[in-house]
Design goal:
Helix content: under 10%
Strand content: 25-35%
Number of helices: 2
Order of helices and strands: EEEEEEEEEHH
Distance between the termini: 69 Å
Radius of gyration: 25 Å
Structural class: mainly beta
Number of strands: 9
Largest sheet: 7 strands, mixed
Length: 179
């Protein structure tokens, strides 16, 4: 995940006065430059992202809280069918003014800082979306998955479906017939 100065996630908060309590609402809509999610389920690159948020000036920085809306695509963790899932996730993060940042560089890894009047909201959005996605997405809650032997959907095969189990140690004798 690389971010450059042209990133659509970088928001200019120049119009927001730096007095505690001041607030301004924003609406962004653009196509995702990179996938956001997990290998099994993600907002694909090129998908439409709608981001509504408010920026509120506080004593140490700007508190940004809002919602990202999009559609994720992926595959069911049991049957591998294609699935689509609506994404409507809230996010909230405090962006510290540069002048309020700690001198200790170890603390900076966990703190989001403004770059002048710019706030890069990509990481808080990614974190919120990824943490809200299921680890094992399902096409429907009662998906039975695939048969481990033949690979067919268990729903279509019925309850009597089975395969003859042959012990691999006896497989050499499988075609043998006594004379």
């Amino acid at each position: 995940m690389k971010s450059n100065s042209q990133s659509p996630f970088k928001v200019n908060l120049h119009e927001l006065p730096r007095r505690a309590g001041e607030m301004k609402s924003y609406h962004l809509e653009f196509q995702a430059p990179e996938p956001i999610g997990t290998p099994m389920l993600a907002i694909k690159a090129g998908s439409n992202l709608k981001i509504d948020f408010k920026a509120e000036a506080v004593s140490d920085g700007v508190l940004i809280s809002g919602r990202v809306v999009s559609e994720a695509e992926g595959e069911c963790g049991r049957c591998l069918d294609e699935l689509r899932e609506d994404v409507d996730q809230e996010f909230r993060e405090l962006f510290m003014y540069e002048s309020r940042k700690s001198e200790d560089e170890e603390d900076d890894d966990e703190i989001f800082a403004m770059d002048g009047d710019l706030a890069d909201i990509e990481t808080p959005i990614r974190d919120a979306v990824v943490l809200a996605m299921p680890l094992n997405p399902l096409c429907k809650p009662d998906c039975q998955g695939l048969c481990s032997e033949c690979g067919e959907r268990l729903e279509k095969l019925g309850s009597g479906h089975s395969h003859e189990k042959v012990d691999p140690r006896w497989s050499g004798l499988a075609g043998w017939q006594p004379k």
